[in-house]
Specification:
Elements: H1 2-42, H2 46-56, H3 63-76, H4 84-93, H5 98-110, H6 114-127, H7 133-144, H8 148-162, H9 169-178, H10 182-195, H11 200-207, H12 212-223, H13 229-241, H14 245-253, H15 259-274, H16 278-290, H17 296-307, H18 311-321, H19 330-343, H20 347-357, H21 363-379, H22 383-393, H23 397-408, H24 412-419, H25 427-438, H26 445-455, H27 459-472, H28 477-490, H29 494-507, H30 512-527, H31 531-544, H32 551-563
Helix pairs in contact: 1-2, 1-3, 2-3, 3-5, 4-5, 5-6, 5-7, 7-8, 7-9, 8-9, 9-10, 10-12, 11-13, 12-13, 13-14, 13-15, 14-15, 14-16, 15-16, 16-17, 17-18, 17-19, 18-19, 19-20, 19-21, 20-21, 21-22, 22-23, 23-24, 24-25, 26-27, 27-28, 28-29, 29-30, 30-31, 30-32, 31-32
Length: about 575
């Protein structure tokens, strides 16, 4: 008996030994077929890729990537329905496989076989009755197809079957957003992020279309106690999109300074930079550095402060960082300091800083720093020292800077020739080139002084000087009056601005500034709740200058003015 058993055992072992190489070979062949299918698909040979992917199905280890590859290949061929018979065969062997079930649902939904998709969903639920996956996948497909009522039915069924909607919170959040239930959606997103922290960006994307009237309720839900990182990240991201970057930073700044919080601060600072919210970026980077982030972010904070127009904080941040920034960024630190000092009208200090740098500044860094010093001298009105500094700086920038100095000195001819070749797109550059192109006058001390005052930030004097330019240079009068009107408006002298706009509309109807003046006039009237008068000006603009690029803006303003009830008394 024992001998018989030994014989059987030996035979079984021998059979297994013969089968193993075949199985290994089959697995290797399937893996090679999968790789071949991917290469063929990438090369645009979808028909050949189908054959390779079908070959890869022979090994269970390659089943999921092969099915997904077949889905893509058949889609490229415009034959997604060709996949369905194969899926039926695979599901007969693996009825609970979530990938195969999802691909089946996705395919049926894509080809609009809605009733078959519903039956496939029911079959999946029957196989895995306590699994949220079938409800999740089907609801997502219906939401992507904008079938919100059908998705709602699926999620309600899931809640009844599973006893809770927590595992489907993300789908419920998307559904509620699609239905305009913004506060409820934000509540669901907050629940969803407990199980899936990676959903914060999806929440921002989903909630960002919330109308203005609903935004406070959305934020209230996200910022409600307890104070948690992810809901506040979502709130901050929404506020950044809604152009309230500082409020977004306030939401994050209230968090305890842990490692995860500091990472969120740095991320928000980068997002604020990308949105040109410079001072918010400065605050986020500075706070992160104060709690242990790398000192390299001090440099970014200082740069953001300078770009945001607060050079004093640039100097303060760099002083706080001190030697911790290291020698590798020495030139960058010096250049930032010099530019900040120039903006603060302290060019002598900047010049001393460059001199102290000595051999630590290479030729390029020294040239850039000296040009910044030269602009500092321009700001204080010392054009001779600005010229002398530019000569020391040299480089390609000298011609451009010299053209600007020529403009400030009133040499319009030389400025016109130099600035014509510039690629600057700043507001000052566009204004200067427009001004120079519209007058044939070769020199004007008044115009030069107006631009110099503008560059020095002396808006009040610049406004009055541009008004004088309009009287002295008739060919550029509407442009000069328009600039003066904007400056008076910024200074709060609305009455003076309105008087200038009226003069432009009445006396320079063919100039491009006429339509612009009427639009700005109407906006001021709307700000005073004088909507009836605003409507008159907007209608006049649209009828008088129908080809103006400002007409779409005027139509939007007109719609807003008409939609708000006008007060009993209204005067233009």
């Amino acid at each position: 008996m024992r001998s018989a058993r030994s014989v059987v055992t030996i035979l079984l072992l021998a059979a297994t030994a013969r089968a193993l190489p075949a199985q290994v070979g089959q697995a290797q062949g399937a893996a090679a077929a999968l790789t071949r299918g991917l290469d063929l698909e990438t090369s645009g040979k979808a028909r050949e890729a189908v054959a390779a992917y079908r070959e890869a199905l022979a090994d269970i280890e390659q089943l999921v990537p092969a099915v997904l590859g077949l889905e893509r290949a058949y889609s490229q061929l415009g034959r997604p329905d060709s996949l369905l018979p194969l899926l039926d065969t695979l599901l007969a062997r693996q009825p609970a496989n979530p990938t195969i079930r999802t691909v089946q649902l996705r395919t049926l939904t894509t080809i609009r076989r809605d009733e078959d998709a519903r039956r496939a969903f029911v079959q999946w639920v029957a196989v895995t009755p306590r699994d949220p996956a079938p409800y999740r996948e089907y609801a997502r497909l219906l939401l992507d197809d904008l079938r919100t009522l059908a998705a709602d039915s699926v999620l309600q069924a899931a809640t009844r079957a599973l006893g809770s909607s927590r595992e489907l919170a993300a789908e419920l959040a998307q559904l509620r957003a699609a239905l305009g239930m913004w506060q409820a959606s934000s509540h669901s997103w907050r629940e969803a992020m407990i199980l899936s922290p990676y959903l914060d960006q999806a929440a921002v994307f989903s909630l960002s279309p919330a109308p203005v009237a609903q935004r406070d309720s959305v934020l209230g839900e996200l910022l409600a106690p307890p104070v948690e990182l992810l809901p506040r990240k979502v709130a901050a991201g929404l506020l950044l999109r809604w152009r309230s970057a500082h409020d977004g930073w306030s939401a994050l700044a209230a968090l305890p300074a842990r490692d995860s919080t500091i990472a969120a601060w740095l991320e928000y600072g980068s997002d604020a930079e990308a949105n040109e919210e410079w001072l918010t970026a400065r605050d986020a980077f500075a706070a992160a550095v104060a709690h242990g982030a790398p000192q390299s972010y001090s440099l970014r904070a200082a740069q953001a402060a300078l770009t945001g127009g607060e050079p004093a904080s640039t100097l303060r941040l760099l002083e706080q960082a001190g030697s911790a920034l290291g020698d590798t960024v020495y030139a960058s630190v010096v250049l930032l300091k010099v530019r900040a000092l120039a903006m603060l009208a302290r060019p002598q200090e900047g010049e001393r800083l460059v001199a102290d740098g000595g051999a630590r500044l290479d030729a390029l860094a020294r040239s850039q720093a000296l040009r910044a010093v030269a602009w500092g001298y321009v700001r204080v009105g010392d054009l001779q020292r600005a010229k002398a500094t530019l000569e020391k700086a040299g480089g390609d920038e000298e011609e451009r800077a010299s053209a600007w100095i020529a403009l400030y000195e009133g040499d319009l001819k030389r400025a016109r020739g130099g600035l014509r070749r510039t690629e600057e797109t700043t507001g000052d550059a566009v204004l200067a080139m427009s001004f120079l192109s519209r007058t044939r006058v070769d020199s004007s001390a008044t115009a030069g002084n107006a631009f110099l005052l503008l560059s020095r930030g002396d808006s009040a004097k610049a406004a009055n000087t541009f008004e004088r330019v309009a009287r002295e240079l008739p060919d550029v009068a509407p442009l000069a009056l328009g600039v003066a009107a904007r400056l008076f408006l910024a200074a709060g002298d609305t009455a003076h601005s309105i008087a200038l706009w009226e003069a432009i509309v009445a006396g320079h109807g063919n100039a491009p500034e006429a339509a612009e003046s009427e639009l700005e006039w109407a906006r001021v009237l709307r700000g005073r709740n004088q909507d009836a008068s605003a409507v008159q000006h907007l209608e006049h603009l649209i009828l008088t200058w129908p080809q103006s690029a400002l007409v779409p803006q005027a139509r939007r303003e007109l719609e807003l003015a008409r939609s708000r009830p006008s007060p009993a008394t209204d005067a233009s």
